[in-house]
């Protein structure tokens, strides 16, 4: 009996979810757009900061380079709620950046996700550039490239690997729930995004809505993966 | 001298890769550096091409002392070019690959266009000009890499084992291009190779690098026939290395060496050295082998013995004969057949006093095997 109820709940949920998506339910659309907007912004900003820093780490020889790369790799797995807590404390009224009034705003969420994925993009950029082997670097230098020209050539040569890095960063940003829940506060119509909406609606028993958003989130993730595999085949 | 390296050393951590290398290269010369892998040849070329700085030493390129002015390295490096062992192409079209060096030098587009097409035609790749360089075979990629270097019209060209992994046809194309470059443009060429025949084919002089030092430089024939020490002798494939003692020596005449109770006559004075112990070295090609009556020959050294081993090293056969001391002769497979050479057969061997070369015993140090 219980199985029957569950079955019908899931089936019903799916049918209603498809309806919500197909009819373009305003709240579903609004949450989706906000999610994309926040995570794309975070990816863009993180990319602008982390790619050059990653390249710098790769090109410069310095003491503790390997240790730094190890730390970055550890941060890949940093729990999102800890980043959320950290950014919350920074942005809260009494925190050092409280004056910016960014807590519980989309701007604050962009900052939180940016911080979350910077180590990932930096660390993976170093790995992506490391796929350029030594002989190729020698070739570039011996062809008469200036320092700037060799950096540009190396980055151009690893362009597909770097695109994969950016896509992975975006994937982590859009699918995480910890930082946006803590820093954004899941305010309806203002800071509610796909992941936080799924969490809330599920706890309220509003399964069709959760399933609809889940399908969209999965579709985005799937899209990222398809682009990623196309890029990696190049 | 277009290149003058003096006492160059290079250390990576506590590993010493180059140990006081000195070498001078004349303008317009083709110089081969031969030596086993891991002897430091590649590192040395990278230092000459200003890709890496040496740990210590002096280096002059185009008559300028370059180590003291790193700020001008780019400018000097742009007058040189280097081709590496592994074919390296960038993920771009063949055209863009070949144009790279010229673009770095900000040459104008029409000139790039003209020279890239001309060069690709010369290496037989013009039909691939728009193809992705990654889709080409290894030999074709190496030709792209060579084109990429020569369009920049270097005054000095460094080649680091340029044909090590290539098919014979690509190897021939590359060798031909290199020699043409030297002949027509007077490009100075320094080529690393572990292939002694290639070293001989390409170079006017060869240097032998062993264990981080260039131990001998000279005409290929000189190095192959008169190796300066045992390590070189072994590397250049001298088949006979015998231990002996100087028995007598006439000034300006023959030296007699006693080898296990036999007397060998050598047409050179004993080497400088403290002891009378020497090594007698000579190549298997210089040994004549025969059956039956000992032929009347002008060769000073004639011995008889029985064959102890026959080893085929096509197109030759190495025949080892025990004459109280082992002697290896290289003969053609055909003459080995016609003489019915086989283990146990009694034969005689002869070799001229002038084919023998003496090396002082202590030069080899602890490297006795």
TrEMBL record, chain A:
Cell location: Cell membrane; Membrane
Domain of life, source organism: Archaea
Keywords on record: Membrane, Transmembrane, Transmembrane helix, Transport
Residue intervals of the ABC transmembrane type-1 domain: 32-228
Protein topology in the membrane: Multi-pass membrane protein
UniProt cross-references to NCBIfam families, sorted A to Z: ABC_perm1
Membership in a protein family: Belongs to the binding-protein-dependent transport system permease family.
Principal subcellular localization: membrane
Protein name according to UniProt: ABC transporter permease subunit
Signal peptide coordinates: none
Species for this entry: Methanoculleus frigidifontis
UniProt-listed InterPro entries: ABC_perm_TupB-like (IPR049783), MetI-like (IPR000515), MetI-like_sf (IPR035906)
Transmembrane segments: 36-59, 71-91, 111-132, 165-187, 207-231
A Pfam entry, by short name: BPD_transp_1
From TrEMBL, chain B:
Keywords, sorted A to Z: ATP-binding, Molybdenum, Nucleotide-binding, Transport
A molecular function GO annotation: ATP binding
PROSITE patterns xrefs: ABC_TRANSPORTER_1 (PS00211), ABC_TRANSPORTER_2 (PS50893), MOP (PS51866)
Domain ABC transporter, residue spans: 3-236
Mop domain span: 296-360
Reactions catalysed: tungstate(in) + ATP + H2O = tungstate(out) + ADP + phosphate + H(+)
InterPro entries xref list: AAA+_ATPase, ABC_SmlMolc_Importer, ABC_transporter-like_ATP-bd, ABC_transporter-like_CS, Mo/tungstate-bd_C_term_dom, Mop_domain, P-loop_NTPase, PstB-like
Subcellular location: Cell membrane
Known EC number: 7.3.2.6
Principal subcellular localization: membrane
Transport among keywords: yes
Broadest EC class assigned to this enzyme: translocase
TM stretches of this protein: none
Coiled-coil intervals: none
Bilayer topology: Peripheral membrane protein
Domain of life: Archaea
Subunit relationships: The complex is composed of two ATP-binding proteins (WtpC), two transmembrane proteins (WtpB) and a solute-binding protein (WtpA).
Family: Belongs to the ABC transporter superfamily. Sulfate/tungstate importer (TC 3.A.1.6) family.
The protein, known as: Molybdate/tungstate import ATP-binding protein WtpC
Organism, as annotated: Methanoculleus frigidifontis
């Amino acid at each position: 009996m219980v199985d029957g109820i569950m079955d019908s709940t899931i089936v019903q949920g799916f049918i209603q979810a498809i309806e919500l998506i197909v009819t373009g339910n305003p709240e579903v659309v609004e949450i989706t757009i906000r999610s994309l907007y926040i995570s794309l912004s975070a990816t863009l900003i993180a990319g602008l900061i982390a790619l050059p820093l990653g390249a710098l780490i790769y090109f410069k020889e310095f003491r503790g380079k390997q240790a730094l790369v190890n730390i970055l790799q550890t941060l890949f797995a940093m729990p999102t709620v800890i980043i959320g807590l950290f950014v919350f404390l920074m942005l809260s009224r009494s925190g050092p950046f409280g004056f910016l009034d960014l807590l519980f705003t989309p701007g604050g969420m962009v900052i939180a996700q940016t911080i979350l994925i910077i180590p990932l993009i930096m660390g993976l950029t170093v790995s992506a550039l490391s796929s350029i082997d030594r002989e190729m670097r020698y070739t570039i230098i011996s062809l008469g490239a200036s320092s700037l020209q060799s950096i540009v050539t190396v980055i151009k040569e690893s362009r597909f690997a770097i695109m994969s890095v950016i896509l992975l960063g975006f994937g982590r940003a859009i699918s995480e729930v910890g930082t946006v829940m803590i820093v954004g506060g899941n305010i309806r119509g203002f800071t509610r995004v796909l992941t936080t909406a799924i969490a809330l609606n599920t706890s309220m028993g509003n399964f069709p809505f959760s399933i609809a958003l889940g399908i969209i989130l999965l579709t985005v993730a799937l899209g990222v993966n398809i682009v990623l595999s196309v890029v990696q085949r190049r | 001298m277009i290149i003058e390296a003096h006492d160059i050393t290079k250390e990576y951590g506590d590993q010493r890769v180059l140990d006081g290398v000195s070498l001078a290269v004349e303008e317009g010369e083709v110089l081969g550096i031969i030596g086993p892998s891991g002897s430091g040849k590649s590192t040395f070329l990278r230092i000459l091409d200003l890709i890496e700085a040496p740990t210590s030493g002096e280096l002059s390129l185009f008559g300028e002392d370059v180590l003291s002015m790193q700020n001008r390295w780019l400018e000097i490096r742009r007058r040189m070019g280097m081709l590496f062992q592994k074919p390296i192409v960038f993920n771009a079209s063949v055209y863009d690959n070949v144009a790279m060096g010229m673009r770095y030098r900000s040459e104008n587009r029409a000139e790039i266009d003209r020279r890239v097409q001309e060069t690709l035609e010369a290496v037989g790749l013009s039909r691939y000009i728009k193809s992705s360089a990654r889709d080409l075979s290894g030999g074709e990629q190496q030709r792209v890499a060579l084109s990429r270097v020569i369009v920049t019209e270097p005054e000095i060209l460094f080649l680091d084992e340029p044909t090590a992994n290539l098919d014979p046809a690509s190897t021939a194309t590359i060798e031909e291009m290199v020699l043409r470059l030297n002949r027509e443009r007077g490009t100075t060429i320094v080529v690393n190779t572990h292939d002694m025949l290639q070293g001989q084919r390409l170079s006017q002089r060869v240097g032998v690098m062993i264990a981080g030092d260039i131990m001998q430089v000279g005409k290929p024939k000189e190095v192959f026939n008169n190796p300066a020490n045992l390590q070189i002798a072994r590397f250049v494939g001298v088949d006979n290395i015998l231990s002996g003692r100087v028995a007598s020596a006439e000034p300006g005449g023959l030296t007699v060496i006693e080898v296990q109770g036999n007397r060998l006559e050598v047409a050179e004075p004993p080497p400088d050295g403290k002891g009378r112990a020497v090594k007698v070295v000579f190549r298997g090609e210089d040994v004549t082998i025969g059956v039956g009556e000992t032929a009347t020959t002008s060769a000073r050294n004639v011995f008889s013995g029985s064959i102890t081993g026959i080893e085929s090293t096509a197109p030759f056969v190495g025949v080892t004969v025990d004459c109280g001391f082992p002697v290896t002769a290289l003969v053609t497979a055909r003459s080995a057949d016609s003489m019915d050479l086989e283990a146990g057969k009694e034969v005689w061997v002869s070799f001229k006093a002038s084919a023998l070369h003496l090396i002082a015993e202590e030069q080899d140090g602890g490297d006795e095997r």
